[in-house]
UniProtKB/TrEMBL annotation:
Keyword Heme: no
Keywords: ATP-binding, Kinase, Lipid biosynthesis, Lipid metabolism, Magnesium, Metal-binding, Nucleotide-binding, Phospholipid biosynthesis, Phospholipid metabolism, Transferase
Entries under SUPFAM superfamilies matching the protein: NAD kinase/diacylglycerol kinase-like
SMART domains, sorted: DAGKc
Name of the featured protein: Diacylglycerol kinase family lipid kinase
Origin species: Anaerococcus porci
Entry cofactors: Mg(2+)
InterPro entries associated with the record: ATP-NAD_kinase_N, Diacylglycerol/lipid_kinase, Diacylglycerol_kinase_cat_dom, Lipid_Phosphate_FormReg, NAD/diacylglycerol_kinase_sf, YegS/DAGK_C
Gene Ontology biological-process entries: phospholipid biosynthetic process
GO cellular component, one term: plasma membrane
């Protein structure tokens, strides 16, 4: 008997996910013999639900929530030996991973796009004892990407990021770090560092290099120049997909790396949009670690 766990975060996004639950359950019952529905009430509930589903050998898990709920699910499933297939439905303010896999950002349409036919095994990053689905980073410029609302993106496109970048740059700081990887080892000043499983966040593409969420590589971007004009220039290239062409950006790919701050400063890490850890850190790629359901994008 095929069992599916449906995890709903009723407090994410517009807090109206419960209006769609009956439709979602009806849709999931087309592919599963039993659908168990659980609602989160506090932090880490989604992670606990996922671990329980792994232990009880559920066939699949679907998550209705935003980036934070999906990240909890990823952290729960990634640590387990048996890992059910994972599906995502956009119930949050930002649904970044849904954009990466080409699905609709509107829950109503995303329900129609649910398909049980096509899946993909995707890479997951591990940073110390935590997991991330698409990036870990530090630096004030990160706020320009994570604080840009869906409404701003819809109205202004890439220029919504430009506005927030210009607000963020005056508060930017550099730290001395040491990078050790299976590609190279070096020391540098860095005001921004991204370690990514793919070269974009949502619809913001950092470079035109071919990259996929299951190519088994981490992509590293480090802003090494401290000057204001250099930072503006790098921010521009970030917005227009040319970050790897910028002379003030160190970029490379690897499978493992460690990052250490050299002056005793506290440097917090952002993982998939949430502050989750500090330097020093050890990061590695877990190749094709989770199998996810892909939306049927022929349904618009």
């Amino acid at each position: 008997m095929k069992k599916c766990l449906l995890i709903e975060n009723p407090n994410s996004g517009k807090q109206n996910n419960n209006q769609y639950i009956d439709r979602i359950i009806e849709k999931l019952e087309e592919g599963f013999d039993e659908v168990i529905h659980k609602r989160t009430e506090k932090e880490d509930d989604a992670k606990k639900f996922v671990i329980n589903a792994c232990e009880n050998k559920y066939d699949s898990i679907f998550v209705v929530g935003g980036d934070g709920t999906f990240n909890e699910a990823v952290n729960g499933i990634s640590m387990m030996e048996y890992r059910p297939k994972l599906g995502l439905l956009p119930g949050g303010t930002n649904n970044t991973y849904m954009q990466l896999i080409g699905g609709s950002n509107e829950l109503d349409k995303a329900i129609e796009q649910v398909s049980f036919e096509k899946t993909k095994k995707v890479d997951i990053g591990k940073c110390n004892d935590k997991y991330f689905s698409y990036y870990v980073c530090f630096g004030k410029l990160i706020d320009a990407t994570t604080s840009t609302s869906s409404e701003e993106k819809e109205k202004l496109g890439s220029f919504a990021y430009v506005k927030n970048v210009l607000k963020t740059i005056p508060n930017d700081e550099s730290v001395n770090i040491e990078i050790k990887s299976d590609f190279k080892t070096f020391k540098t000043k860095a005001s921004l560092l991204y370690v990514m499983t793919i070269n974009k966040i949502g619809n913001l593409e950092f470079s035109k290099e071919n990259s996929d969420i299951n190519d088994g590589l981490l992509i590293v971007f480090i802003m090494t120049e401290e000057g204001l004009l250099s930072k503006i220039d790098a921010a521009k290239d970030m917005l227009f997909g040319k970050l790897d062409e910028n002379d003030n950006i160190e970029s490379f790919t690897c499978k493992k790396l460690s990052i250490k701050e050299l002056d005793g400063k506290e440097v917090e890490l952002d993982m998939d949009g949430d502050i989750n850890g500090k330097l020093p850190c050890d990061i590695e790629i877990l190749e094709k670690h989770i199998e996810i359901y892909l939306p049927n994008t022929s349904i618009q």
